[in-house]
Specification:
With about 100 residues, this protein is an alpha+beta fold. It is built from 3 helices and 4 strands. A 4-stranded antiparallel β-sheet has the order 2-3-1-4. The protein is globular, with a radius of gyration of 14 Å. This is EthD family reductase.
Length: about 100
């Protein structure tokens, strides 16, 4: 099992519409990626490591797939549509990491 982490770094003045992200973007991702997408988790940042520290990331989506090949096969044909929707909810470029779940 692998996890694709899509992380939106917090920065002053950035725009991020969490309602659009959760209510429209992620359902679009689910629909397009189909059954290869096994699970999605969404984290909304609240704080950083210290009591007054802001979160490092405004939001993160954690997408689970059986393998990297399954992710690439599902994402590739729909990449333009998924990535093209990003400006509808944010002006932040996401950081993406693919990890093995141990």
């Amino acid at each position: 099992m692998i996890k694709v982490s899509v992380m939106y770094p917090r920065r002053d003045g950035a725009r991020f519409d969490i309602d659009y992200y959760v209510g429209k973007h992620l359902p679009l991702v689910w629909r397009l990626l189909g059954p290869d997408l096994k699970r999605v988790e969404v984290d909304q940042g609240l704080a950083g490591g210290g009591p007054e520290a802001p979160p490092i990331y405004i939001a993160m989506a954690l997408l689970h797939f059986d393998s990297v090949d399954a992710f690439l096969a599902a994402f590739g044909p729909h990449a333009a549509e998924i990535l093209g929707d990003i400006p509808n909810y944010t002006d932040i470029s996401p950081a993406i990491q693919v990890s093995t779940i141990l």
